[in-house]
Amino acid sequence: MSTITGKVVVITGGARGIGEATARAAARAGAKVAVGDLDAELAARSAASYGGLGLPLDVTSDESFTGFLDKVEAEHGRIDALVNNAGIMVIGRHLETGLDAQLKQLDINLRGVILGCHAVAPRMIANGGGSIVNIASLVARIPTPGAAVYSGTKAAVLAFTEALDAELSGQGVRVSAVLPSFTSTGLIDGTTVPRLSPAVQPAQVAEAVVDLLGRHRPVATVPRSLAFSSKQWALMPAGMKHWLSRKTGMDTMFTDFDHAARASYEERTTGD
After folding, report:
1. Domain boundaries, the chain
2. Contact 207/178 with Cβ under 8 angstroms?
3. Distance in angstroms (rounded) separating the CA atoms of residues 56 and 65
4. What is the DSSP letter of 60?
5. Which of 68, 150, 160, 254 is catalytic?
6. Looking at residue 2, what is its pLDDT?
7. How many Å apart are CA 15 and CA 86, to the nearest integer?
8. What CA–CA distance (Å, rounded) separates 97 from 76?
9. Using one digit for the tens of pLDDT, what is the confidence trace for 67-122?
């Protein structure tokens, strides 16, 4: 029997992509699932299909996050786990891409994670403990041209996760990070999959998240085959990193892309 059976699992950005896949996987594992999203209508519609709760949520607002968690507790009485999944990716050459759009990633990808952890941890401690899983990215370990700010936010999430777990573990709250590689969601619309590995599916990331909710580990890399090489990246000389980037296509995958194919995602996430 799953160790999250009967647990109350809360997921941000749960209306689509990795968030929705994780919500469905958690529900199948027997959890009571609540998702929050800016697209409240889509979140509610999706949640209804697996017996969950879909609510409006702006992760950049402390008031919105607190209100969201209050509603979940009013419905289910407690919160056992939080998956900080909400995030956006703005790509393109740093000096040629709108600065406001790039900085929005700080608000959603990093500030949203910090607000969520800060709001939910005291509730978990009061209830005897809980689990937090933060969705980072493989670029937290392998920073990528054309996604400089995105890489920075995900590296910060990884460091924040490790530090916060060290702080909260003694009070029964464990914090983990998931590092997905190229994932087939709207996040990569218009881009070319690098030769490093094929794109993973949201369901693969969801499986890793649910596993962490039931059995704490500091970090899960998706796919697992990239766990070792991604850890070694920081140890490589700069020249070797640049050579590998060129050989795998990582040097251009986020700088040379199909703008038309990406237009819908950009309009939805940044209004550009």
Report:
1. 8-270
2. no
3. 9
4. T
5. 150
6. 58
7. 10
8. 43
9. 999 999 999 999 999 999 999 999 999 999 999 999 999 999 999 999 999 999 99
Could you identify the residue written with the tokens 């090489």? 229
User: How does pLDDT run across 87-101, given as a tens digit for each residue?
Assistant: 999 999 999 999 999
pLDDT exceeding 90 applies to what percent of the chain? Answer: 90
Cα separation, 67 vs 114, in Å, equals 16
Taking the C-alpha atoms of residue 13 and residue 207, their distance in angstroms, rounded to an integer, is 17
Tokens representing 52 are 């969950």
Fold of 8-270: Rossmann fold (3.40.50)
DSSP 8-state code for residue 249: T
Cross-strand pairs, 139: none
pLDDT band at 227 (very low <50, low <70, confident <90, very high): very high
Contact 255, 146 (CB under 8 A): yes
Spell out the residues 6+ positions from residue 235 whose beta carbon is closer than 8 angstroms to its own.
Answer: none
Instruction: Point out which residues pair with 178 in neighbouring strands.
Output: 135, 220
The CA distance from 272 to 268, in Å, is 8
**Residues in a beta bridge with 54:** 35
150 is catalytic: yes
For CA atoms 197, 202, 207, 213, the dihedral sign is positive
Mean pLDDT, range 241-262, rounded to an integer:
92
Q: Supply 166's token pair.
A: 């060290």
Helix axes 202-214, 17-28, angle to 10 degrees: 50
Please report how many Cα atoms fall inside a 13 Å half-sphere around the Cα of residue 1, on the Cβ side. 6
Tally the residues of the chain.
272
Residues 6+ apart with CB under 8 A from 152: 143
- Token pair recorded at residue 150: 């995105």
Grade residue 23 by pLDDT with cuts at 50, 70 and 90: very high
CA angle 81-156-122, nearest 5°?
A: 35
